[in-house]
Design brief:
It is a single chain. The protein is mainly alpha-helical. Helices cover 81% and strands 0% of the residues. It is built from three helices and no strands. The protein is rod-shaped.
Length: 59
């Protein structure tokens, strides 16, 4: 969750004090995309664990 929500506010706050270079905005975007990817991956594994535990009850 930190990858999604933290980089953008930090860069905006930092832009008040120093000049933010253009590749920093690319890094913010990459962090956002990686955060969403990790969130989806975690939900997929959570659902798989739930299904595995559900099947273990019937065996």
């Amino acid at each position: 969750m930190y990858n999604i929500f933290c980089p953008l506010p930090i860069v905006i706050i930092a832009s008040f004090f120093v000049e933010v270079e253009s590749f920093i905005w690319g890094l913010v975007f990459i962090h956002f995309m990686l955060g969403i990817f990790c969130y989806f991956l975690a939900n997929i594994f959570k659902q798989g664990l739930h299904l595995q535990n559900e099947q273990d009850l019937f065996i």
